[in-house]
Amino acid sequence: MAYQLTHSLAILTDALESIVNVVAGLVGLYSLYVAAKPRDLDHPYGHGKAEFVSAAVEGTLIVAAGVMIIFETIQNFFHPLPLQQLDIGCWIIAATALLNYAGGALCLRMGQKNKSLALEASGKHLQMDTYSTLAILVGLLIMLTTGLTWIDQVVALVMSVWIIYNGYSIIRRSLAGIMDEADSKLLKRFIVLLNKNRREQWIDLHNLRVIQYGALLHIDCHLTVPWYLNVHEAHHEIDELAKLIEQEMGDSIELFVHTDGCMPFSCTVCSIVDCKVRQQAIVSRPEWTLENILSNEKHRL
């Protein structure tokens, strides 16, 4: 309505974003419904990746809106429409900015609380829409006071580039989730936790894989323990590892641990002082890092 009143390309930019918001919100809502479904025979790891697909769709819609704005701006350059009733347009988009910011803040808070990429993407999109609306509002006010109508095209082009960049960022993050790209920030947090709470029987931990599907954290690793532990004793160490992770990262966790028995070369990195089968002296207990904990090899000096 505001665009029909004013013929402003800057306002068209805001209008297209708002339309994308509505469509993306519906897609996001459906993805949350799918992601909340329990695991089944066809989806043994659950349905959490539906949120990544939803975020990819939303990012694509944002990029499409930006491209459409550029097309309309170029077309308007050759066939300009006279601007009118910009004051009314300012009031309309100012009201939409307030609503978008409030909705975006709510989505972000709920998304971070529930570790939902779909909600976070929607929240960022709504707040991005708010900032772009404010920029558009400033441009309209400058046009009202100076009469420089070419500012409308400049604002539309600048905002379209910014919109495309943000859409690309959302697509990039969603594809990273779909492709199970390693989350270095999450891995570093996990390694710090393990180093601070490392038990004596945990000689080394390697071949670590941490993947997040929505609120579910999937963890695979190999834990090296003394070879003389029986099955129950080795399983106790796994239970202690699971408790530690759940205390720090919540109970929405799938933990798969393969236990390895130590080898003679493990003695140099093992800190069990009273070990009766030790074959080599203790040299040092290396700190776990991204390099040695992700490697599929037992630790040695």
The CATH topology of the largest domain turns out to be Alpha-lytic protease prodomain-like
CATH architecture of the largest domain: Up-down Bundle
**Class computed from helices, strands and strand pairing:** mainly alpha
Strand content: 5-15%
Written overview of the protein:
The chain has a three-stranded mixed beta sheet. It is elongated and about 90 Å long. It has nine helices and three strands. Helix 8 (231-249) links the parallel strand 2 and strand 3 (253-261). The longest helix is centred in the middle third of the chain and has 30 residues, at 117-146. Helix 4 (86-114) packs antiparallel against helix 5 (117-146) and helix 5 packs antiparallel against helix 6 (150-178). With 301 residues, the chain is mainly alpha-helical.
Topology:
Blueprint: H1 2-6, H2 9-35, H3 50-78, H4 86-114, H5 117-146, H6 150-178, H7 184-196, E1 204-213, E2 216-225, H8 231-249, E3 253-261, H9 290-294
Parallel strand pairs: 2-3
Antiparallel strand pairs: 1-2
Helix pairs in contact: 2-3, 2-5, 2-6, 3-5, 3-6, 4-5, 5-6
Can you give me a brief rundown of this structure?
By secondary structure, the chain is mainly α. It has helices at residues 2-6, 9-35, 50-78, 86-114, 117-146, 150-178, 184-196, 231-249, 290-294, and strands spanning 204-213, 216-225, 253-261.
